[in-house]
Write a structure and sequence with these properties.
With 421 residues, this protein is an alpha/beta fold. It folds into 3 domains: 71 residues, Roll (Archaeosine Trna-guanine Transglycosylase, Chain: A, domain 4), CATH 2.30.130; 110 residues, Transcription Regulator spoIIAA (2-Layer Sandwich); 191 residues, Vaccinia Virus protein VP39 (Rossmann fold), CATH 3.40.50.150. The chain is 26% helix and 27% strand. It contains 10 helices and 20 strands. The radius of gyration is 23 Å and the shape is globular. The termini are far apart.
Length: 421
């Protein structure tokens, strides 16, 4: 196997089990005899060694500032049962947390308790850097964020089918997540198992449903964002349900209406769902009709968030509860300053429109924006508007999106629940 030799004293972070090897820490690369090229292939398994030739671990080689993502510490090669054991451990944790309560596999009687939607693998949080696996009922969606995981996609799929009882179908969706210039062989998107029947190809909106805490959601993993749904807001959606009774609710950046459905079930007086995507709004309406077929208190609008809020303010519209869950404003460090301006601007507009005694749920999913910077942006928005604001909750990602204690960078979702006088 190719060996990556570190510079002296650059092994300390790996001995603390941080899973990344940065390119600046590498002294040289010793290729194995089979190599014809002058450098390792992207996605190749390499053994990382200290300057003193101590084996530190094995991982996937990649081009960029993060040169190796470690899969197994202290190993020279991957154990033969590596994928099975890691998927088994990931599933066992979700099972122990009580997240998997599909009626087919549970003795629970309450429909509200049924949940067959969860994240099975959360990258570094499950010691599998570069890999995401989400489960929607009987279908798992695999997403690779590194070429190494792309190369191993079929082994991963086999392990998921072996270790997760309810999964029968595997869909692979990595066209938007693999490194843009990486030399990738094979399809980036498609079924890794026989497609379920009837085939979903060619339908405008897919006919696949999953259940989250008793609510049904149509999942479009073929064309939807991420793997088709934002599972990471499950617990925060449940908190909205607790606050929604008799309130006029605005769900901005609503996507397929997760927060909206929980607000409706919580007894909201009215719910307005807004997203710039008409496709998302179509799915919101489908989801509302499925769960609340006689509801007359829900409105869905395709509109730009800033323009919508400005127009509502001009019309004198106000709300008791507003949810702001925008897409990542900063996908890399260079965009942080502009992202913080965006968070301040959107939160100021929302705070202006909340009635006295109202509630604001506000989020950032930008990993590049830390929670202190986000909190400062929201503080600046409140000060700009001149309202008295108190923090009720500080929110984060749920338990099936675990944070590796050796990799604090994995804490990406930040949220605040604010009381506005």
């Amino acid at each position: 196997m190719t060996s990556v030799i570190l510079k002296p004293h650059k092994e300390e972070s790996l001995k603390r089990f941080h899973p990344w090897v940065f390119s600046g820490a590498i002294s040289r690369v010793v290729l194995d005899a089979s190599h014809k090229a002058a450098a390792p292939e992207e996605g190749e398994l390499v053994c990382v060694r200290s300057a003193a030739n101590e084996v530190l671990g094995v991982g996937h080689w990649q081009v960029g500032s993060i040169a190796v993502r470690i899969l197994a510490f202290g190993e020279e090669t991957l154990p033969t049962d590596f994928w099975l054991s890691r998927i088994r451990a990931a599933y066992k944790m979700r099972e122990a947390l009580g997240l998997i309560t599909d009626s087919q596999f549970s003795t629970l009687n309450s429909q509200l308790s049924i949940n067959n939607t969860f994240r099975l693998v959360h990258g570094e949080g499950d010691f599998l850097p570069g890999l995401i696996v989400d489960v929607y009922a009987e279908t798992a969606v695999i997403q690779a964020h590194s070429v190494g995981m792309h190369v191993c996609r079929n082994e991963i799929a086999e392990a998921v089918l072996s270790e997760v009882p309810q999964v029968q179908n595997i869909y692979y969706k990595s066209d938007d997540t693999l490194p843009f210039k990486a030399p990738v062989e094979g399809e980036k998107t498609g079924w890794l198992t026989t497609p379920p029947q009837p085939s979903p190809q060619g339908r405008e909106i897919e006919e696949f449903w999953s259940i989250e805490n008793g609510l049904s959601f149509r999942i479009d993993w073929l064309r939807g964002q991420k793997t088709g749904f934002f599972i990471d807001q499950r617990e925060n959606r449940a908190l909205v349900e607790r606050y929604a009774k008799d309130k006029d609710v605005l769900n901005m950046f609503c996507y397929t209406g997760g927060f909206s459905l929980y607000a409706l079930r919580g007894g909201a007086k009215t719910v307005d769902s807004v997203d710039v995507s008409q496709k998302a709004i179509d799915l919101v309406n489908v989801n509302v009709a499925r769960n609340f077929p006689s509801a007359t208190n829900h409105t869905a609008v395709a509109a730009d968030a800033f323009e919508y809020l400005s127009k509502q303010k001009e019309d004198g519209k106000t709300y008791d509860l507003i949810i702001l869950d925008p897409p990542a404003f900063a996908k890399h460090r260079d965009a942080v300053k502009n992202a913080l301006r965006g968070y301040q601007r959107i939160n100021a507009k929302a705070i202006e429109m909340i009635r006295s005694g109202g509630i604001l749920f506000t989020f950032s999913c930008s990993q590049a924006v830390d929670k202190e910077a986000f909190r400062l942006a929201v503080f600046s928005a409140a000060a700009q508007v001149g309202r008295k604001v108190r923090i009720l909750h500080q929110l984060h990602q749920p338990q099936d999106h675990p944070i590796n204690i050796y990799h604090p960078e994995g804490e990406y979702l930040k949220g605040l629940v604010l009381y506005v006088e």
